[in-house]
Design goal:
It is a single chain. With 328 residues, the chain is of the alpha/beta class. The chain is 38% helix and 18% strand. The chain is built from 13 helices and twelve strands. The strands form three sheets. Strands 5-6-7-8-9-10-11 form a seven-stranded parallel sheet. It has a three-stranded antiparallel sheet with strand order 1-2-3. A two-stranded antiparallel sheet has the order 4-12. The model has no long low-confidence stretch (mean pLDDT 97). The structure holds ligand 164 and magnesium ion (MG).
Length: 328
C-alpha cells in the first residue's frame, strides 16, 4: 500500500455521525471519516479511544480502498451471520427479524453490568427463534477469566455453540481455557478476535495453540491485502468480520471474504443492520442470508444529511494527520 500525501487525503474528506439502532460495544453512534480516491471512497473509523499507533492500520485500509481497490473475488456472494447485541432476551426476536435469511447468529455475552443469567437467557432466546438447525456463536470480548469462561461456556454449551469468540482477554488465557475445556469434557471451539486484530503479532495465537478459529477484520489489520495475507498464513479456519462499519467499510470486508480461498463460516458482515442510517440508499445488508459482491454507491445527500458537527471534522483531520505520521 502506497501512502498518499496528507493534503491529498484531506482534500475530499467527509465526516459523518451515524446513529445506532441499539447500543453496541458501548457506543450509541458511529463517527466515520471518508477519504476519496480513483477507486472511490475509503472508510476510516477507528473507535474513538484508539491511539494513532493502532488507528494507523485503519488509515491504511481506507487508503487501499480509495487508491488501490481490492484483489479479485473468487465468489460472488458471502454468507453472513446475524449479530445480536447484549439486549434483553425479550428483544431478541425483533433484532433477529432484521437479518433476512441468516441461519447463523453471533450473540454478545459477558457484557459489563450484566450477569451470566442474562447471557443464558439471550442465547436461549436466539436458539428458540432460530431453531435447532441454526448455528449460534457467542462473543465475550475477553470479558471472562479462565474459570468464569469454563463455567459460562459449560452452561451455554447445551444450547449448541458453533464457537466462543475471545472468551478471555489474553492469548495465554485462551490457551489455558482450551485445555480446561478439554479436561472438563466441554466440546466448544474457541475463536480469537482481539488476540489477532489488536496484537503486535497475530501469529502468536497459533504458536500458543490458543484458538481453533481466527476472526479476521480488514480495517484493524490494515486493509484487504494485509488481512488476506494474515488469513492465508493462519493454519486455522478464518471468519471475516466487520468493525461496525457503514456500507463503504463493509464492502472491504465483503471483498476480503470474497477473495479467500476457503470460507467455511458465515461472516460477521451484517452489522450495517445495527446502524439507523447509512451513506448509501442501497445498503450492503444480507438478503437471504448472503451479501452479494457489488460496489457501494455513496449518496452525497446522505453524506450531508449525516455530516458530523464541524468541530468533529477538526478532530478527524488531526486524527488522520497523526495516523499518517505513523505510516510515513
Ligand atoms: O462479528 C460480528 O457478528 C459483527 C462484528 C462485531 O461483533 C464487532 C464489531 C466491532 C467491534 C467489536 O466489538 C465486535 C467484535 O468483537 O467482534
Ligand atoms: Mg469479537
Amino acid at each position: 500500500m502506497t501512502v498518499r500525501p496528507l493534503d491529498e487525503l484531506l482534500e475530499e474528506l467527509r465526516v459523518v455521525r451515524l446513529p445506532l439502532r441499539t447500543r453496541f460495544r458501548g457506543v450509541q453512534e458511529r463517527e466515520i471519516a471518508y477519504v476519496r480516491g480513483p477507486f472511490g471512497w475509503g472508510e476510516f473509523a477507528p473507535f474513538l479511544e484508539y491511539e494513532p499507533s493502532e488507528a494507523a492500520r485503519w488509515l491504511s485500509a481506507a487508503i487501499e480502498a480509495a487508491y488501490e481497490g481490492w484483489p479479485s473475488p473468487v465468489r460472488d456472494h458471502v454468507p453472513v451471520n446475524a449479530t445480536v447485541p447484549a439486549v434483553k432476551a425479550a428483544e431478541v426476536p425483533e433484532v433477529l427479524s432484521r437479518y433476512d435469511g441468516c441461519r447463523t447468529a453471533k450473540v454478545k455475552v459477558a457484557e459489563r453490568g450484566q450477569a451470566l443469567q442474562d447471557d443464558l437467557d439471550r442465547v436461549a432466546a436466539v436458539r428458540d427463534v432460530m431453531g435447532a438447525d441454526a448455528r449460534v456463536r457467542v462473543d465475550a470480548n475477553g470479558g471472562w477469566d479462565v474459570d468464569q469462561a469454563v463455567d459460562a461456556i459449560a452452561r451455554l454449551a447445551p444450547y449448541g455453540l458453533e464457537y466462543a469468540e475471545q472468551p478471555c482477554a489474553t492469548v495465554e488465557d485462551l490457551a489455558a481455557l482450551r485445555k480446561a475445556l478439554a479436561r472438563n469434557g466441554v466440546d466448544v471451539l474457541v475463536a480469537a478476535d482481539e488476540s489477532i486484530r489488536k496484537a503486535e503479532d497475530p501469529m502468536r495465537v497459533v504458536r500458543l495453540d490458543a484458538a481453533d478459529v481466527a476472526v479476521v477484520k480488514v480495517a484493524p489489520l490494515g486493509g484487504v491485502r494485509a488481512a488476506l495475507d494474515i488469513a492465508t498464513q493462519l493454519p486455522v479456519p478464518v471468519v471475516v468480520s466487520s468493525a461496525l462499519d457503514s456500507s463503504v467499510g463493509m464492502a472491504a470486508g465483503v471483498a476480503l471474504a470474497a477473495a479467500l480461498p476457503d470460507l467455511p463460516f458465515a461472516c460477521g458482515l451484517g452489522t450495517v443492520e445495527l446502524l439507523a442510517a447509512d451513506v448509501t440508499d442501497d445498503s450492503l445488508v444480507p438478503r437471504s442470508g448472503e451479501i452479494g459482491v457489488r460496489p457501494v454507491v455513496v449518496d452525497d445527500l446522505l453524506l450531508d444529511r449525516w455530516a458530523a458537527p464541524r468541530e468533529r471534522w477538526e478532530h478527524w483531520m488531526r486524527r488522520i494527520a497523526a495516523c499518517h505520521a505513523e505510516l510515513v
